[in-house]
Amino acid sequence: MSGEEYVRMRTLQVVVLVVFGVIAARLCYLQLFDTKYAELAKANALRREVLYPPRGEVYDRNGEFLVQSRECYDLMVVSRDIDRRGFDTALLCSVTGIPREKLEKELRNAAAYPRAPRMIANYISKEDKLRFDECNFRGFYTVYRTARQYPRKVGGNLLGYVGEVNSSMLRRYPEYRPGEYVGVSGVESAYESELRGRKGVRIREIDTHGAIKGSYMNGRYDTVPEPGKYIVCTIDARLQLFAEELMRGKVGAAVAIEPATGEILMMVSSPTYDPDELVGRERGNHYVEMMNNKRHPLFNRAVSAKYPPGSTFKLVQGLIGLQEGVLRPSDRHPCREGYQVGRLSMKCHEHASPVDLRYAVSTSCNAYFCYVFRDILDNPKYGGAKNGFDVWREYVESFGFGRKLGSDFLNEGNGYVPDRAFYDRRYRGSWNSLTVLSLAIGQGELGCTPLQMANLAAIVANRGYYYIPHIVKRVEGRDSLDRRFYERHYTKVDPKYFEPIVEGMWSSVNRDGTSWRARIEGQDVCGKTGTAQNPRGRDHSTFLSFAPRNNPRIAVSVYVENGGFGASAALPIASLIEEYYLTDTVRRPELVEQVKSMNIYYPAYDR
Amino acid sequence: MTGSRHNRIFDGVDRATVLLYVLIVLAGCVSIVSASYEEGAADLFSFSHFYMKQLVWVGVAFVTAVVVLLLDDRFYHMLAYPAYIAGLLLLAAALVAGKEVNGAKAWFEFGSFRVQPVEFVKIATALALARVMSEYHFSISRAGDLMKVGLVICLPLAIIVLQNDTGSGIVLGSFLFVLYREGLNKWLCIPVLLIAALFIFSFLLSPMTLLVVLILVCTFSEAMMNGLWRSRIVFLAAVGLAAGVLYLLVGLAAPGRMDFYHALLAATLVSLVFVAVYAYRANLRNIFITMALFVGSMIFLPTTDYIFNSMLKQHQRDRILSFLGIINDPLGTDYNVNQAKIAIGSGGLTGKGFLQGTQIKYGFVPERHTDFIFCTVGEEWGFLGAMTVLGLLCALILRLMRMGERQEEPFGRIYCYSVAAILLFHVLVNVGMTIGLMPVMGIPLPFMSYGGSSLIAFTILVFIAVRLDASTRQFTLNTKY
Predict the structure, then answer these.
(1) Does B12 map to a domain?
(2) Nearest CA of chain B to the CA of A17: how many Å?
(3) Which partner from A329, A595, B319, B340 sits 20 to 30 angstroms from A520, CA to CA?
(4) B382 and A31 in contact by Cβ < 8 A?
(5) Nearest to B362 among A19, A32, A213 (CB)
(6) Mean pLDDT across the stretch A129-133?
(7) Is pLDDT at B432 greater than 50 in this prediction?
(8) Residue B345 touches partner A, C-beta closer than 8 Å
(9) Rounded to whole angstroms, what are the CA distances from B473 to A508, B69, B332, B376, B479?
(10) Which domain holds residue B373?
(11) Is the CB of A16 less than 8 angstroms away from the CB of B387?
């Protein structure tokens, strides 16, 4: 062999070895270093069937069902497994009650991904499912789900509803899969993690046709679904129902709190809706209807709306004045149908003059609280109204205004208390206590949620402190709620200053005040009316109240938009709620009739 | 007397080759069992199963091997041309009257049994090539002789391409391996490989780039062959200058009528006349071969787009595009390759065990007992199993080359190298496609893929080499006595 031939032979041997070397290197990478193929192989040959747990149920404070979980089924299809010749569309439609066009449309969509299971109908009842099982349609199967059911049909906004997870939710919480249900608002969303339970999984081996070949590793990795926990609400279902009936036809909100615990006994956002309408196949249509309703039934006014508190805010004004030492209960101020300084005047209704604090609260004198408010702001101690305003604002915040209270509602609103910077901007820096005088009587830029107002009632009832209002009393398997619900939150006003205000509220109902219609035999009701001017039609009507005067059991705030005087719309509703809760009966049927037949005109909504 | 002669023949048989062959065939049987085993099938030994059928074919192949060994080596020498011509006729017959499978009209069907003539044409071509190149006055550096070799390879290639069975046709390209061993100038081999690569990637490049690369490749390889660097650089400069002048002149005379690509093309083609004269005068004949290469490529390359779009079938186009990563569509074209990669990749170091491969068992890998049989090895026996099988194949190929080197006659050497080249190409393309190194071409893994005609053809191919080798060794053994 010549040297040339030897080189060529060696070269070719090297070529062979290089070819095999490249293949070996590639195999080494595929089999030893790239782990994605093992995962992909599992994804190919294993089908993970998710087993859904029943969603937790919700009880009211007396153990009555507010929300139940009803058994229902999703109809699924794997397009390529459908028996094309033997499949009877009409039969499937009649068995499951799906309209034919919808079924055909879904089947066309499913054909785009022939191997993937796809849901074509949901909320199939148990009875329909049994009939479906008898027919044995190839390629179709059902998956167990639960649907919500509301025996009392109350508390739509309060309980919230359940819907399919949306894409932003899917991005944030990878444990959810498309098509799964999740609490969207109210209790359902606030306690989602407790209510949803834990999904189970069953892993099966499948072949390339999707046929099930058996369980994977004899079910070693299968898990059983864990049902959602039940929840006991602080709501009294009967009171809730009664309040919803009273609020029907009005726009506004009513909230009742047990002052000693902060538990929300009743919470109505009106107009409300039948929560069952947001379950089942018609859900989408009902949802669109509600979204188009100008009165916004899906907006939870009780925790999110911002209303001017009106005269009810005088309670806060008086308390701050007492604490600041600029007001003594015996101080008298004149009121000649209002408060006048120069060109500025604040009207008041006709009553005796001069008045002391008790009577000023009782009869809701505007002028009196203008004096108090100006004394607070212009207190020489602080050197200037602006500094005084900062002090005032701190007090107001300590009552829970202008910020979230921290309740278990995720969509709780802040309300609004303007700050110094706001007025500096608005008046280009030149303003004084007169400029912002409307704050004295709870008007102007102030905005409070009905929950904050009910909380104010609870603060006064407790003489100086509150528990954060909350909706859930107990969660299955948990000894206690979040710690924040057990802490007393004191305002910056000393409890000793509350008694004169309580005295004023008591006499407003029981002696010589604007709230005389709220009187209930045998119960020492205390109350404060409020009438808030607003640019959109008649005044808003509001009423704050608690009862009995000593060891109060209930604190109520009712707000009726465009309801007129506080005493005309909000007061009777609040009073009836108190009566029903405290005595279990209503002895004033004519008042109930009057409330129910009340006709309020809403130019802002019903154009 | 005959008995002793047979004994002596079997004495000369290379035992290592036979052992490797048997081991690979057995590995193939095991894989086919895995690939076609059905859990809970009623009768495990029924002949309706692929693996039972294959077992029968293995038996037939062993008998064939013995028959091949029994025939005289001169018989194969004599058989070369008739077999080659018969092969061409068979191919032509298949083109006219064959059955179309997967778009290739390359099959004969006898009942349930299908034969692909190309399997046997490989043998015939290898024999014919060995015969041509072992003629007494043959010299591979002579242009005329090289043309003969090209003819032997390209005749069957042309018919196979016409059958639309490009994958099998490309196998014949592997004879370049043999030509190199037989002394073909490496500066012809390298441009051929480069041009093949250009052909694959041509639709990625502009015609201008292609032309420039082609001119450079041809000039450069010619310069490497003849070593006259200075004049080649002058040539390149002259062509470039001529093209530039032409472009400017035409641009002045009739603006927009000619772009630089056409100017360069014209300048190059005109220069070929001078090159031919120069080659004749300087007596550098190999320049003609380079010129033929260039002109041939020029005819092909501008038409590559045309070939690609009109001659290749949609699925072939998709496979090439998918292989090159130009389209990516896991559930469509890529599906086969992806599933193959998943099966192999999920095998890990030691594999999932015999009959435990989920991807194979549950049918995710397509063609799992034929073209994608290697997936079974990769999934069930893991990296170690795959390396064992590859090791056996590699050893067999190297052994065949070794056998070629010890032949007394060029005929035997060329034949052995041909067999090695064919096997190497099959392994590279078949295994390469299952692991995403190669586009999907429907060619089987030697000795392992299910199918009687392929197994028997490869058996004959290898055992003729063993027979040729045996008589050489017998001769040396006899002289020693």
Answers:
(1) yes
(2) 8
(3) A329
(4) yes
(5) A213
(6) 88
(7) yes
(8) yes
(9) 128, 14, 53, 38, 10
(10) 2-204+313-480
(11) no
Mean pLDDT in residue range A242-269: 94
Q: A532 pairs with which residues across the strands?
A: A540
Closest CB to A45 among B349, B359, B401: B359
Query: Residue A344's pLDDT is what?
Result: 79
Under an 8 A CB cutoff, do B349 and A32 touch? yes
pLDDT in tens, A96-117: 888 888 888 888 888 877 767 7
Cross-chain Cβ contact A30/B382 below 8 Å:
no
Q: How many domains does chain B have?
A: 1
The reply to whether B353 touches chain A by the CB within 8 Å rule is no
pLDDT digits over A383-420, tens only?
Answer: 889 999 999 999 999 999 999 999 988 889 999 999 99
- The tokens describing B228, both together, are 């006259």
Residue of B nearest to A11 (CA): B181
Residues in chain A: 607
CATH number, domain of A456, equals 3.40.710.10
Q: Is residue A88 part of a domain?
A: no
Task: For residues A391 and A456, state if they share a domain.
Answer: yes
> Tell me, what's the ipTM?
0.84
- Residue range(s) defining the domain that contains residue A147: 47-81+112-233
HSE-CB for B229 with a 13 A CA cutoff: 1
The residue type found at A249 is G
Both A183 and A289 in a single domain?
no
Q: For a pLDDT cut of 70, what percent of chain B falls above it? A: 85
Nearest to B387 among A4, A24, A30 (CB): A24
- If you average pLDDT over residues A55-77, what whole number do you get? 90
Give the count of alpha carbons within 13 A of A580, CB side only. Answer: 23
Residue pairs spanning A and B at CB distance below 8 A: 112
Nearest residue in chain A measured CA to CA from B177: A12
Q: Least CB-CB distance to A31: which of B345, B363, B393? A: B345
A569 near A256, Cβ under 8 Å? no
Q: How far is B388 from chain A (nearest CA, A)?
A: 11
**Residue B357: closest CA among B36, B23, B70, B2:** B36
Q: Do A407 and A543 have their domain in common?
A: yes
Identify the pLDDT of residue A140.
85
Same domain, residue pair A251 and A227 = no
Q: Does the global pTM surpass 0.90?
A: no
B398 touches chain A (CB under 8 A): yes
Closest CA relative to residue A367, chosen from A347, A384, A381:
A347
